[in-house]
Amino acid sequence: MNRVHIKTYGCQMNERDSEAVSAMLRARGYRMVASEDDCDVLLLNTCSVRDAAEQKAIGKAAYLSHRKKRQPDFVIGILGCMAQNRGAELLDKLPDVDLIVGTQKFHQVPDYLDNIRAARAAGVPISSSIVDIAEEAGSQNTIRDHVLAQDVAAASGGVGEEIAPQVSAFVSIQQGCNMDCAFCIVPKTRGDERSRPMDDIVAECRALANRGVREVTLLGQIVTSYGRRDYVHTDGISPFVQLLEKVSAIEGIERIRFTSPHPRGFKQDLVEAYGRLPKLCGYVHLPMQSGSNRILRAMNRPYTRERYLEIVDSLRAVRPDMYFSTDIIVGFPGETEEDFAETRELFGRANYDMAYIFKYSIRTGTPAATLGDQIPDEVKEARNAELLGLLQQNSLRRTATLIGTVEEVLVEGRDKTGERFMGRTRGNRVCVFDANPRLIGQLVPLKIERASVSTLYGELALAGVEG
Questions:
Q1: What is the CATH number of the domain that holds 351?
Q2: pLDDT at residue 450 tops 90
Q3: Which of 128, 176, 188, 272 is the most exposed place for a label (fewest CB within 10 A)?
Q4: Structural domain span for residue 414
Q5: Are residues 289 and 263 in the same domain?
């Protein structure tokens, strides 16, 4: 009973948490399997940002209960944000779940599974499910282990299909959030803001570089708030920018990205970092949420549309070719046609390359859940569709300007077809092209020949390189 599959819902933070749990389990002797049909233990790492995400995970767990009736020793676990948000009440709907572990207890999963296995091996009946959603000081420091593709290849002894080395990785630097946005459940599911020691993060990035990783993405709920209570500003440089400087100095790391920031974190030191740190990619995820100052106040977002546009303009002044993505919520309680028109206008002026556009959904336990003047679903749907249409126009216009240019691309591996290769530009655009497998992990010049809304196609422009 040692074969484990983890199914992950939600954000990049959840992906990173799942990877860390996988590494801990592998170190304990568990086998991670790619198919849920082959596992003895299935862990659902869940999301609570929207109700639909929770319902999807609940539906999956209910479906798995049927399998448990056929396989009594099959173990079902629910991890992460939904576990933290709902806790033991999940057992009312899902009595067959064996394990519920919150966001500050991922590192306890191996011990809990060991206990379940030992009890069943000894024939000891387990009277109740394990539920652990308690807070734990220092839990942010436990998300540090990685399972890279090259580790999987080494463990298999080269048996089976060829596994390309992994050249990009997520690094968790901070967890929790103190912002208290009116619509957001994250402070409840992730707890208060907690940062990891800077030296530990740098050591983790250096170790990844030594294992062949060339690009790191620094992760946090409000990543730009990193270390603000633990480190001093030095010569006007925030702890987060100090961290960027240290990671940038690591030999072997060629690109740095980060997500998710908050607009208030874009002070002058961070803006200027884009001009003096060549490894910092010219791509910014800058959540707007709304273009209406009235709605921003109702959301408890501490900036105005004017300040937001100042940040966009200052970043483009440093790097004219900067790429932007954002988060938008349409249909927040009380959002009028005039409010939405302001969002639409700012959305167009910012000229986004990518956006995550959400229809507001009530999250019980948030301030916005009790507000009146909820917006009808059909209005939310229409506003959502309108912004998606603008986004498609923006993306097509931007990709069209790249045809005929040469872009630097980090070769990541084969594309979905397995016949060609893929990589990303510094602006985070996916590229597809012909190449030699030996170029995986290399930065190569690619001449762009055609483009779709989100993908660029081209040929290598480096003399002597075999395509």
A1: 3.30.750.200
A2: yes
A3: 128
A4: 403-460
A5: no
